[in-house]
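Hi U.,

Before I forget, here's the chain from the pilot set. I'm dumping it here mostly so it's searchable later in email.
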Amino acid sequence: MQMERIKASGTEPFDQTYSLGYEVNHKEWSPFERVNRLRKVFLDRPYEIDVERLRLVTESYRKNETLPQKLQCAYAFENVLLHSTLHIYEDDLILGEIAAPAKASPIYPEFSVNWIIDEILNSPFEERAHDQFYIRNDEERKEIVELCKYWQGRTIEDKVNKRLEEEQTKGSQLGKKIFQTNLYHYAGAGHLAIDYAKLMAVGYDGLIDIAAKKYENLDKKDPEYGEKRDFYKAMIIMHEAAKKYIARYGSLAVEMAATESRQKRKEELLQMAENCKAIAGGAPKTFWQALQLFNFATTLIQIESNGHSISYGRMDQWLYPYYESDMENHRISKEFALELIEVQYVKMNNPTKLKDKGTVLVRNGRGFGGESLTIGGVDRSGKDATNDLTMLMLEGSAHTRMMNPWVCVRMHEHTPYELKVKTVECIRAGYGHPKIFNDAPSIKAMMSKGMTLEEARDYAVIGCVELSLPGKEYGWHDAAYVNTPKMMEMVVNGGRCLDCGPHCARWERCGKIGEKLGPDTGSLLTYESFDEVLSSVDHQFDYWCDQMCSSLNIIDYTHRALKPVPYVSAFFEDCLESGKDLTEGGAKYNGIGPQASGMATCADSLSSIKQLVFDEKRFTGEELLNAIKDNWVGHEILYATVNSSKVHHYGNDDDYADDLFKYMFECYCRTIRGRKTPRGGEYSPGVYSVNANVAMGLNTNASLDGRKAFEPISDNMGPVHTDGGSHDINGPTAIVNSLAKVDHSLATNGTLMNLRFPQEAVAGIEGRDTLISFIEEYIAKEAMHVQFNIMSAETMKAAQKNPKDYKDMLVRVAGYSAYFVELGEPLQKDLIQRTELRF
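Structure:
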């Protein structure tokens, strides 16, 4: 074990202390001046909207309207790569953007355009309260509108909306927002990681050669001959275009080197040109070339389709052979390897995605979101996989402290002590990275999706907390959000929302005034036992999950018809072998992963009903129902009661309430699991909300956990905290004990747990070691995931008052970190109100 520890080292001592929380007027964190300059340039650069992709894609689709859809996609992709403007920036060591300047968002009209036209004309992007985007001039503004008009009626959104029934829409984001299918309804399907190891081994030429041979051997007796032919042709067109795109960057680097007067920069440009030449078709030979191929391959996936969470897999594993070879042959120093990693980390923040005003209401960010980078864990044989890159990638995270990448550390019972310390030192620095995943329940969850033990051990994190198998799983993770407290309104109010009536703003979507939104499964006026309440929960969940999943199936089929993805499909071995696009079920594993939000709100609501109405009989069901219909006004005693320790609450190691949380958790998981997807797989339930609990709360009436209308619902797997107070009062150990009473592996699409400690709670060696012990206990109890905010409420309030002094202060929001001063006020408030824990 000691030898393994010595091998896995970075450039700094494993117990290097970086800082304790955010420091105002801090010094630069990186030891590399280049990285500090790149970081400053990024922070100072404005966010823009770039018209070039929209222009080139539209030009190609107009020209090729009669071609099969896969070929329309291929030629549009090719047109972008051959004609988009390229940029090489000062201090760059890694080349390649997303066919747009750094921090400029392309437009993806294939998915949805109505909101773009509307906001340009009526709600300008640059006038938003936050998450502003700037269009360069009025000519481009007009051009965007005109080009988008071509796409009206042709997009994913348009086609999906025409196919959805009233039963499906009335509970969706188009109606009461009981569930929301926003992501793939309006944008590209992402949430995947490719087989980077395979790409590195064979390069683009190797993949093209495989496709060409498969194409030549197609059998016209095969009823799928036409589809497979189009797939292979499209894939070859796109990968040949990728080669030419990389070569264009190499030529530009040579041109710039010819006029560069600084010898060092000239040499860097020429080396980058040589790297491009090597990997334009062939496999990389060095660490630098492997990183360069990684960046091109990944950004090209984002160019093809604007899906969120194009993640990086187990980067410390697939990249390690190139690092090891370079070190053994003295081609690289450990310090330069770290500098390359840090340059890449900063560059990972350049891809920018335009989002609608509703999405960013509480601030969902301007990045693509979800670019997780997984390190640590066990290998396919079950042995610890920690290596030098594991430690270097954590050092790079501590030195750059940016939103991306979302570093994920896999831990298990034999994780080396040094990695635990390094991880906790990064956490104590207070910038929200890394997040921690527990191998035991995660591997169990992967196996329950049908994977072998060896495959399951190779899982990576996709997006916020979703588990996936790189190059083999197309899981449609993060496919929809379920507002379970909104479902509970149906449970307590006879299938109606609490606001159903003449004042309901969406009654047209819900049916006529007074009609039920969902099935009448009883109400607090009619239940005679608590078992009847739980039975109603089951029925409402089943009904609304039917509506949601049938809607997602329509969206899935629409992506297959309109936006196949041959470029990225080639990085999935089963797609390349079968000739089936990812959208056609070409991957080995094909799931859909919607997630439930607000579980603790539901559990504490059920606890109030069970305790106060049926066990103690202190209040009637009618009194509880009237209290939330009146938003607690006139019911102050009841309001104070449900927000006090007199009522059992989840998160306090109290079986009374924890059993109800477990019931809700298992109810959702069993309602979702086993449903079939259009691509031949099964649905995969997740239990998390990311930051959507705030936006969901803005659309949710008062609830019996003590929430008032429009307050956030409970976040992720965490306990309730309302304006009336936090419901967890027994400290972090009690929270973990409550959390561990559920089998996390049932949520095969992931769970998420946020915890917040003030800086002083983890200060010094004692504080560090206490946090390590806490994490070890968390792992031992087989909870799946945990992430930390090391930040006091006072620090966040100071940032609200003086945002200029806290411009680059990152906070852990949920599955991601974000700059606190850029968050919407409702989300800032939610972060401040989260329980501040102490050991």
